[in-house]
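Dear colleague,

Thank you for sharing your sequence with our group. We've completed the structure prediction you requested, and as agreed, I am returning the results in plain text so they can be pasted directly into your records. Please verify that the sequence below matches your submission; if there's any discrepancy, let me know and we will rerun it promptly.
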Amino acid sequence: MNTLTVVATFEAKPGKEAELRAALTDLLAPTRQEAGCLNYDLHQATEHPAKFLFHENWTSKAHLDTHLQSAHVQAVLARLDELCVAPPEISLWERIG
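Please find the predicted structure tokens below.
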């Protein structure tokens, strides 16, 4: 099966680390219930606690697109200017081996 892997990184503004962590953590439960979600894992950098990373695997781009339009994701996206130093860096990967 060809899966689509997403790596998304976020960096909190100074003083907003806990708020960003909470907002991102709130995405875990609803996203893991979505069709096509194989895993949706949130990480925090050990050396830079303001940096967060999602590692996600989806069964298709269509499922990812549906996820990105979901109410819970849109609610967090609307807060990113307030919480993050820059827009998230998002890259898509296809497993080849």
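Summary note from our side: Strands lie at 4-11, 37-44, 51-58, 89-94.

Kind regards,
the structure core
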